[in-house]
Amino acid sequence: MCDNPWPHNTVLGILIGNSIGTIITIMTHISYVPPTIWPVITSPMPSIALEARHVTKQFTNGTFALEDINWHVRAGETMALIGESGSGKTTLLRLLNRLDVPTSGEIHIHDTPAHDKNPIELRRRLGYVQQDGGLLPHWTVAQNVSLVPTLLGWSPVQCDTQVTTMLDLVSLDAEAYRHRYPIELSGGQRQRVAVARALAGNPDIVLLDEPFGALDALTRIDIQNQFLDLKQRLNKTMVLVTHDLREAFRLGDRITVLRQGRIMQIGSPDELMTHPSNTYVESLLKHVLSP
């Protein structure tokens, strides 16, 4: 405890004068007040939205797509999966929504084993954007976007309202685009519609399998900017598969580097840049650092 520099009941006169000689005397009674000790408030750790526990996937020909994967994604986080072709990133994504099943180990979604969930119901609760968008060619934009809400039993009025909301969210004019067919859209517009469809059922988890890979450079940057805006506004848990490490660095909160079915490193962009775990990760980073 600090000593009180002023004796109790001491009276201090403070004289404040101005240029014409007016003097104001302020009498102040000084007494010791012990310091306030505030409790330390800690923020709770984000919950785990997705988790792989000792997951291995072996194909019938004996090839291992994934070997003993231990991995998780926090709620509200964007995790980028990066690796060469055959590294296992798309296989991991498919295991998350039960398009495939592990040979051993478990996938957990919000701490519940995925194998305990009905696969159809599970997929309706997870947003999913395929490599080519995966829009149904003979359905209009409105029908594509409202697919999951319809399957979830929303009323026609609710579906129609959600179509307008989702198209506005991805910067497409609802009245101009809702009656168009996918063939009438540009590549960037089709990907925006695919993202709108993935979000239409209001999932808390969205899986994206190289959604921007087929776009030209300028359109890709534009869609990436749109993605960053949605990420900030919606706070969804997202897993993004990409071949492009620059894209992973730009869009991901953390990055998982995969090689031949094994995890090489998991970390934030800064962690990978400052502490690459091995020569393979270092060689990938040269692509980011090169002009």
CATH topology: Rossmann fold
User: Any idea what the CATH superfamily is called?
Assistant: P-loop containing nucleotide triphosphate hydrolases
What's the structural domain tally?
Answer: 1
**Mean pLDDT score:** 85
Strand segment count: 12
**Outline type:** globular
CATH architecture classification name: 3-Layer(aba) Sandwich
Which sequence of strands runs across the widest sheet?
8-9-10-5-11-12
Span from first to last CA? 58 Å
Which CATH class applies here? Alpha Beta
SSE ordering: EEEEEHEEHEHHHHHEHEHEEHH
Rg for CA atoms: 28 Å
Count the helices. How many? 11
Task: Please characterize this protein's 3D structure.
The chain is 34% helix and 27% strand. It is of the alpha/beta class. The protein is built from 11 helices and 12 strands. The longest helix has 18 residues, at 217-234. It has a single domain (51-289), classed as 3-Layer(aba) Sandwich (Rossmann fold), CATH 3.40.50.300. Helix 5 crosses helix 7. The strands form 3 sheets. Strands 8-9-10-5-11-12 form a 6-stranded mixed beta sheet, with helices on both faces. The chain has a 4-stranded antiparallel beta sheet with strand order 4-3-6-7, covered by helices on one side. Strands 1-2 form a two-stranded antiparallel sheet. Mean pLDDT is 85; it is low at 1-33.
Task: Please specify the SSE layout and strand pairing.
Layout: E1 10-17, E2 23-30, E3 48-58, E4 64-74, E5 78-83, H1 89-96, E6 104-109, E7 112-113, H2 119-125, E8 126-129, H3 141-145, H4 147-151, H5 156-169, H6 174-177, H7 187-200, E9 205-209, H8 217-234, E10 237-242, H9 245-251, E11 254-259, E12 262-267, H10 269-274, H11 279-289
Parallel strand pairs: 5-10, 5-11, 8-9, 9-10
Antiparallel strand pairs: 1-2, 3-4, 3-6, 6-7, 11-12
Helix pairs in contact: 5-7
